[in-house]
Amino acid sequence: MAGESTDPDVVAVILKDHRTMEELFRRMRSVEADRAGAREKFAALLIAHGEAEEAEVYGALKRFRDVDNEEVEHGEEEHAEGNKALLALLEVDEIGSEEWDTRLEALVKAVSHHLDEEERTILNGARESVPDERRAELGTAFLREREKQLASDCGRIESVRKIVGR
Fold first, then answer.
1. Alpha-carbon dihedral of residues 8, 9, 11, 17, nearest 10 degrees?
2. How far apart, in whole angstroms, are the C-alpha atoms of residue 26 and residue 110?
3. Which of 79, 118, 135, 147 could form a disulfide with 50 if both were Cys (CB 3.0 to 4.6 A apart)?
4. Which residues contact 154 (CB under 8 A, 6 or more apart)?
5. Which residues of the chain are modeled with pLDDT < 50?
6. CA within 13 Å, CB half, 83
7. pLDDT at 61
8. What is the DSSP track for the chain?
9. Residue 107: left (phi > 0), alpha (psi -120 to 50), or beta?
10. Which residue from 52, 45, 54, 36 is spatially nearest to 18, judged by alpha carbons?
C-alpha cells in the first residue's frame, strides 16, 4: 500500500522481546544450556527493554483512550520488582545451585506475571486505540532507546544495582 509505514509496530517489537525473554528463561533452567550466557543476555534485555518502555512508550500511551493509566503505572512498579529479582539472580555465584534455582524461579514469576499483564492490558489497549503511524513512531523510539541501553552494557551487575537503588 502507498504510504504504509515500514517502521516497526511498537506492540510487535515489545511482544518479540517478551518471547525472547521466555526463551532465555528456558535456557537458564536447562542443564544442557549455557546458563551463564543466557543470564547475561537476559539481564541486558530486561533492563534495556524496561528502560526503553518507561522512557519512550509508557508516557505516550497514557494519552490514548483504552490504555489504562493505572495499568501503565503498575507496569513501572512491576519493572522495579523484576529488576530486584534480576539483581538477586545476578548475585548468585554458583549457577545451578539451590540458591540459583530459587532466585531464578522468583525472577521467572515476577517477569512472567508482568509480561502477561502488560500484554492483556497495556498492549491490547495500544493495538486498539493507537493509530498505526503512531505505533510505528513509538516502535522506532523504543528500539533506539533499547539499543542505547544495550550499548551502555546495562545488564552488568553494577548497572542493575544503580537502577534498583533509584
1. -10
2. 15
3. 79
4. 44, 47, 48, 51, 160, 163
5. 1-3
6. 25
7. 84
8. -TT---SPPHHHHHHHHHHHHHHHHHHHH-TTS-HHHHHHHHHHHHHHHHHHIIIIIHHHHTTSTTS-HHHHHHHHHHHHHHHHHHHHHHT--STTSHHHHHHHHHHHHHHHHHHHHHIIIIIHHHHHHS-HHHHHHHHHHHHHHHHHHHHTTTTSHHHHHHHHH-
9. alpha
10. 45
C-alpha cell at 114: 508482568
And the C-alpha cell for 145? 532507546
Interhelix angle 10-29/98-118, nearest 10 degrees = 160
Give the end-to-end CA distance of the chain in Å, rounded to a whole number: 46
Residue among 51, 73, 21, 53 at smallest CA distance from 164: 51
Measured distance CA(114)–CA(47) in Å, rounded: 14
Cell of 44: 541486558
Interval 6-30: pLDDT, tens: 679 999 999 999 999 999 999 999 9
